[in-house]
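I would love for you to help me understand the pair of lines that follows before we discuss the fold together.
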Amino acid sequence: MPPEGGLAGLLARSELFGELAPETRAACAARFRQVRFAEGVTVFRRGDTGEGLYVVAEGRIRVTILTADGRELSFRVVTTGEILGEIAAFDGLCRSADAAAITPVSAFFLPRSALQEIYGGHPDLSAAVIKWLCHQLRKTSEQLESIALYPIQARLARFLLLALRGAPPPLPGKRVPVEIGFSQAELAQLLGASRPKVNLALGQLENAGAIRRTSDRLFCDPRLLARFAAQPGGD
C-alpha cells in the first residue's frame, strides 16, 4: 500500500523535502506526477539525459554500474521515501548509473524544469538541497572509511545500524526487523568484501546474538551491533 498521507506525507518524511517550508513543499508537490514501473523494467540508463528525480512511494529500485570488463556493480537499492536520480536532476548532466525496478514500483517524478522554476521563488529549496547533498557526501565518506579501516564484521554492523536509523527502539529482549533488499553478493560489493566473508560475518553476528536471520529479513539488536561497529582493525 502507498504510504499514509499520499504524496504530501511522503514528502514530509523525506530527508530532502521534509526540510522545506510547507509552502515550498506544496509548490514541489504540485509539480510531481505519479509513475509506475513493472518488475524488471529499466527506469533509466547510464548516459541518459537527466530529466528529473524520483521519490519512491512503494517498491525497490536497484542502482548499478557496468564496469569496462562487463561486470555489474550494485551499490544501492532505493526504497520507500528515498530519492533516485538526484545527481543529474541537480547538475543537468547525464545519468551516472543504471536503475531498474526489482519489484513493482510506484513513484513520483519531479521534472528538472520544475525544480528550476521552484528555485526562483523559494530560496529555501536551494538551502535544503545543499544540506541534503552534504549529508549524502558524509554517508559516502563513512562507507569508504568503513571499507578502509574496519573489519568485515564491523562494516556489516555499521551497515545494519544505518538501515535501522529512524526505527523505534526495541522493547527489552526484542530485536528490530530490517529488510535488506540485497543478495549476499550485492551486500559484499557494498561492503568491499567477498561473499564468503560476508556469510561468515553474518554467522558471527548471529552467534553473538546481534542478529537473527529468517528467509526474508534480519532481526537486529542495535546495542550488540554497536559493539561490533566499534571494532577497529583490518580483515
